[in-house]
Every structure is written in C-alpha cells, then in structure tokens.
Amino acid sequence: MNVRVNEDPALPETDEDAPRVVAAAILGHDGVPVSLPPPARHHDVIRHMVHVLGHSAPIDGEQGFMLSDGTFAHRRRARVFAELHGQLLPRAWGLRELYSEDVW
C-alpha cells in the first residue's frame, strides 16, 4: 500500500488545518512507510526494519516523518509543520530540515 507524500507547496489556510508531526518514518522504495511511535528515532526505525521486518541492510529509504493526516513528509516539509504547531525543541531553530531529536 503506497502512502501519499505531502509535497504540496502551499501551506494550509490556518495552522489548525496543518497536520502535526507524529512519528519518525522511512519511506521505502516500494512507497510504503515504516514508522515507530515517539520517542523513536530514525535509527530505531532502521533497526526495526532489519531485525523485525527482515529488510536487508543497509536501509536506504527516504527518511522523514508521518503526519497526523496519514501522509509522509520529507525532512524539510515536516520541519514546516513542526514549526507551525510549536513542536520544535529550542535546538532546532535555524535548521532547514527536521530530525527526530528536534521534536522529542
């Protein structure tokens, strides 16, 4: 099952309409994201993919985040939504991309 990737360049009308960042995720070449709930980091998702799901290492899918609307967002796009909702930790201000360490 492929998931929709949130790449729309337009932001929602209001912050309330914008999805929230909910989990670190890796989008596989097959279009299927794998994620774990917070406070999981991308390396935890990679470990899960190899040791639990049986994927071959190295895992080279696109790292990003799952959003509350069920879409996958790449690091730059996810950072926009995290900032809109005040999810960023202080260390993340000024960064262009979002890392799981920046939100939990």
What attributes characterize this protein structure?
104 residues, alpha+beta, 4-stranded antiparallel beta sheet
- Mean pLDDT level: 89
- Helical proportion? 10-25%
Structural class determined from secondary elements: alpha+beta
Instruction: Find the count of extended strands (DSSP E, 2+ residues).
Output: 4
Order of helices and strands: EEHEEH
Strand proportion, as a percent range, falls in 15-25%
Report how far apart the termini are. 28 Å
Please summarize the sheet with the most strands. Answer: 4 strands, antiparallel
Overall 3D form: globular
Which residues form runs of ≥5 with pLDDT under 50? Answer: none
Tally of helical segments:
2
How many discrete domains?
Answer: 1
| Radius of gyration, whole Å | 13 Å
Lateral arrangement of strands in the main beta sheet: 2-1-3-4
Structure, briefly:
The chain contains 2 helices and 4 strands.
Ordered list of secondary-structure elements with their pairings:
Blueprint (H helix, E strand, L loop, with lengths): L20 E7 L5 E4 L5 H10 L10 E6 L4 E3 H10 L20
Antiparallel strand pairs: 1-2, 1-3, 3-4
